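Field reference: "sequence" (input) and "structure" (output). Example, Zinc ABC transporter solute-binding protein:
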Amino acid sequence: MNPLKIALLAALALALALAAPALHAAPLEVIASFSILGDFVTRVGGERVVVTTLVGAGADAHNYQPRPSDARRLGNARLIVANGLGFDEWIERLAQSAGYRGTILIASAGIRPLTEEDEHRHAHESAVDPHAWQDVSNASRYVANIAEALSQADPAGAAVYRQNAARYTAELEALDATIRRTLATVPAERRKVVSSHDAFGYFSHAYDVRFLAAAGISTQSEPSAGGIAQLIRQLRREKAPAVFVESISDPRLAERISHESGARLGGMLYSDALSNADGPAPTYLAMMRHNLETLMKGLAPAP
């Protein structure tokens, strides 16, 4: 065989041998505490990651009780992504009990948290509102934090993570602008709605929609009979146009408030969890678009 061909074949074989580990490297295993974070990680990580979400679509992370199988899932994980702000403290206890020694990313790091006092509801309390993703500009911070953590866990994929994060951030910025522009067309006096629990404080601050909630920032907060009666009187007085059911809450409370206040049922909002794949909110972007569409229909004058 021609010596030149032999040299070329040898060089090609060497290049393939060097590339093989990268081509066949196992994807990075990442644990996300709940479905919205799982979607963020999937968008940033792409094919380089395998994401396991502990609290899946339609489930409530506030009340989640980890199972023994969850501890086993942490065994091969290189990164755990949690929300923080008191939303999913159980995952840190789970990691400790499972002997996990990797990184735990608090995805909300760098976001100024709201408290119930900030939201002008119960000034005697100062519980932190953990639902920071309800402001789409905050979602961009989540994405930046996730991209950095993935890059540290998998330096070879850093460029991919940065590119994915940049593309996703551009989509988030466009969505944020759409929400602002669309809601601005609703007269200020009509931009007030009722939800089951206080999950929309960040949305309220970002997009100038007043939310009145029957319960506190956690779904574990049970509204009192007196509190519900006070809310109904307030709705009658202020003529709030609609009461919205939340996907993770018992709809009977919203139905009762609607019936007794005269405000119509405005549809279902997604606050703390995505829907199943065949639902209206299988991704974060779809969830926020669905909520915007639902709010616009509920805030429109009755025919």
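Confidence is low (pLDDT under 50) at residues 16-23, 120-125, 215-221.
The chain has ten helices and ten strands.
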